[in-house]
């Protein structure tokens, strides 16, 4: 084992990626950066490369390669580009932990490569488990590749489970803030525009997950993510709305006792916990104070208004390729919404119709997951005349 943990930050220019580099910056004696990757933001990637001096950077967008390469010409940093280069990077031996912080289906292939490479994965990219959870978990088991959650809810559950290895889980309760439109009804949501939906009350995140939080699809994806991470039955996964985002999730055991993990909403905490595991690293993040939060409240989600949560629950229960179909349709619909091409409630309509249309496969192979993803994307796009 190296003196320092060598990190491969996949998606280093995003919301999770940049916060992870903040954590690295505060703990120079513990972490070093071996690999950084980004899709389009070559300028930020360059800046990060000059600061953290990884051995390798990968820029997904090949049109940015020449510029990045020449900007780093006077350094020893290797520059690579394209989708295949991401997988090649994940297959290297030169790192210890992959932070999987690419957004969407695009994160699946590099993460799978890292799993096959037996690396520890700090998983932010929930879509990886939503799309092909059984394949990913099976490969992780075979290759002894630990998957540590970064998603705050799953980190909370993971933290509650420390010391409980012999105690079966009765159920888990995922908390959801409810997003910016908590309490609103369809007659309001029908007119919601992109910029309003991008304003989350408690968390600052990338655009896609911010929209998913507003539609509650994010919580649906997290139910599916939790099923795979903690080996649960669909009936063991519950959701409760908790607008203050202080209780990050809960686990109920066989004796009815419930453990919760709490803290201010700050993604740096779960990122740091995953990267530093099993140690808790000292930091100076603001501390929670009960005086500022006299009321922590909990309520049932409104499944009728936020139908994405009902659709995701359905996909969770059906299993097979249904979560993959749901995810693909949602990615396309959210993209269209962000481009002002469809309305807020259309996102749900697109997901629902795509789930009805694409052939159900009960036990897909990895190739069949890729095919289902492609078919669902094409169908969803054609429906929206994209
Ligand atoms: P983001 O959009 O801010 O960043 C995404 C990163 O992925 C960027 O570095 C981008 O360059 C890269 N990327 C985008 N498309 C790519 C592609 N096709 N190929 C390769 N790289 C690509 O997203 P984010 O908010 O940081 O979220 C990242 C992941 O973490 C998502 O799966 C999200 O659900 C999950 N997550 C995020 C948060 C949060 O607070 N932001 C919380 C929990 C989970
Ligand atoms: Mg979350």
Overview of the molecule:
The chain is an alpha/beta fold and 386 residues long. The protein has two domains: 5-149, 3-Layer(aba) Sandwich (Rossmann fold); 154-318, no CATH class. The protein is built from 16 helices and eleven strands. The protein has helices at residues 15-26, 42-52, 65-71, 83-90, 108-116, 127-142, 152-160, 186-189, 194-197, 207-215, 217-229, 268-276, 307-318, 322-338, 344-357, 366-383; strands spanning 5-10, 31-38, 56-59, 78-81, 97-100, 120-123, 147-149, 169-176, 237-241, 247-253, 258-262. The protein has a seven-stranded parallel β-sheet, with helices on both faces. The chain has a four-stranded mixed β-sheet with strand order 9-8-10-11, covered by helices on one side. The chain is globular, with a radius of gyration of 20 Å. It starts with a strand and ends with a helix. The mean pLDDT is 97. The structure holds nicotinamide-adenine-dinucleotide and magnesium ion. Residues 11-17, 38-39, 41, 60, 101-103, 106, 124-127, 151, 203, 205-206, 208-209, 267 line the site of nicotinamide-adenine-dinucleotide.
């Amino acid at each position: 084992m190296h003196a320092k943990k060598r990190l491969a930050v996949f998606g280093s220019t995003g919301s999770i990626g940049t916060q992870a580099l903040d954590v690295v910056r505060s703990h120079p004696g513990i972490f070093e950066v071996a690999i950084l990757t980004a899709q389009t933001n070559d300028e930020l990637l360059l800046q990060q490369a000059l600061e953290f001096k990884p051995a390798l950077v990968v820029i997904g967008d090949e049109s940015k390669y020449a510029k990045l390469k020449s900007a780093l010409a006077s350094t020893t940093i290797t520059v690579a580009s394209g989708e295949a280069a991401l997988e090649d990077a994940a297959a290297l031996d030169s790192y210890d932990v992959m932070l999987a912080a690419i957004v969407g289906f695009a994160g699946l292939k590099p993460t799978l490569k890292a799993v096959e490479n037996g690396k520890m994965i700090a998983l932010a990219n929930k879509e990886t488990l939503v799309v092909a959870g059984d394949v990913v978990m099976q490969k992780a088991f075979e290759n002894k590749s630990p998957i540590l959650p970064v998603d705050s809810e799953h980190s909370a559950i993971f933290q509650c489970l420390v010391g409980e290895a012999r105690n079966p889980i009765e159920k888990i309760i995922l908390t959801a803030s409810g997003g910016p439109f908590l309490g609103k009804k369809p007659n309001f949501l029908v007119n919601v525009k992109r910029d309003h939906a991008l304003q989350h009350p408690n968390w600052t995140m990338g655009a896609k997950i911010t929209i998913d939080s507003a539609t509650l699809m994010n919580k649906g994806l997290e139910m599916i993510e939790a099923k795979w991470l903690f080996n649960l039955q669909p009936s063991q996964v519950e959701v409760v709305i908790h607008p203050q985002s202080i209780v990050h999730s809960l686990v109920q055991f066989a004796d009815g006792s419930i453990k919760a993990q709490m803290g201010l909403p700050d993604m740096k905490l779960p990122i740091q916990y995953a990267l530093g595991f099993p140690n808790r690293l000292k930091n100076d993040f603001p501390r929670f104070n009960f005086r500022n939060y006299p009321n922590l409240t909990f309520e049932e989600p409104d499944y009728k208004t936020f139908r994405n949560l009902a659709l995701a629950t359905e996909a969770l229960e059906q299993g097979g390729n249904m979560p993959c179909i749901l995810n693909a349709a949602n990615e396309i619909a959210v993209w269209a919404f962000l481009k002002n091409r469809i309305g807020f409630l259309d996102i749900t309509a697109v997901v629902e119709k795509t789930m009805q249309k694409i052939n159900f496969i009960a036990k897909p192979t990895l190739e069949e997951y890729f095919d289902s993803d492609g078919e669902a994307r094409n169908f969803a796009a054609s429906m929206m005349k994209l």
